[in-house]
From TrEMBL:
Binds 1 divalent metal cation per subunit. The gene is rpe. A divalent metal cation binds at H32, D34, H65, D174. It comes from Streptomonospora mangrovi. It holds the Pfam family Ribul_P_3_epim. GO terms for biological process: pentose catabolic process; pentose-phosphate shunt. GO terms for cellular component: cytoplasm. It is an enzyme of class 5 (isomerase). This is Ribulose-phosphate 3-epimerase. Its EC number is 5.1.3.1.
Length: 224
């Protein structure tokens, strides 16, 4: 499985988002855009107008993570705007199958996110409807939290589920991913790594992306 890195803009300087996106465009695979509404999570960031502007200004594909209530209403619009990947939370979606299909119908990759306490089994039947499964490794809402090792068994179970379903679904982890934690997430089976503070808190964000990728590739190779 190819390792991918998706730096989270939550840890970037919001006054110069496009510049911060371009700082990692040569090294990262995606830019992870944390959309928060202060309802589904206790934090407020940005919405569709900012994503539309970013899409015009940056060269890196956008991996939009909707931490919002009523994603069924909003998610297809992000895909229609040109976001290359749109992820909705299982806990918030009322009609996840319809919403995931609408995202795909707009030509974007469709992702389903699960909070740390949300059981994978409850959503196993949806694996055929998604291009990516996102397992939160912190409670969503804020950057800079500690990676929750209690999610590691769920990462392993998700990797097995994906293998049984044909193996094409990407497995993303988000929260507390750093040089200290990326190896155990990769060894458990994750292949797409969101990292905020570990990238934008570094003196050289592009070099931090390269270092995370190298560590994840090594750990995934050793696990595989
Ligand atoms: O979605 C979230 C938090 O809700 C994440 O994207 C974090 O923002 C990642 O930041 P670090 O934990 O890597 O600092």
């Amino acid at each position: 499985m190819a390792i991918q890195i998706s730096p989270s803009i939550l840890s970037a300087d919001f006054s110069r988002l496009a510049e911060q996106a371009e700082a990692v465009a040569g090294s990262a695979d995606w830019l992870h855009v944390d959309v928060m509404d202060n309802h589904f999570v206790p934090n407020l960031t940005l919405g569709l107008p900012v994503v539309e502007s970013l899409l015009k200004a940056v060269s890196i594909p956008l991996d939009c993570h909707l931490m919002i209530e009523d994603p069924d209403r909003w998610a297809p619009a992000y895909a229609e705007a040109g976001a290359q990947s749109v992820t909705v939370h299982a806990e918030a979606a009322r009609a996840p199958v319809r919403t995931l299909r609408e995202i795909r119908a707009q030509g974007a990759r469709a992702g389903l996110a699960l909070n740390p306490a949300t059981a994978l089994d409850a959503y196993a039947d949806l694996v055929g409807e998604v291009d990516m499964l996102l397992l939160m490794t912190v409670e969503p809402g804020f950057g800079g939290q500690r990676f929750l090792d209690l999610v590691l068994p769920k990462i392993r179970a998700a990797r097995e589920l994906i293998a049984r379903s044909g193996g094409s679904v990407w497995l993303q982890v988000d929260g507390g991913v750093s040089q200290e934690t990326v190896e155990r997430a990769a060894a458990a089976g994750a292949d797409v790594f969101v990292a905020g503070s570990a990238v934008y808190g570094a003196d050289d964000p592009a070099a931090a992306v390269d270092a995370l990728r190298a560590q994840a590739e090594k750990a995934a190779g050793q696990a595989g």
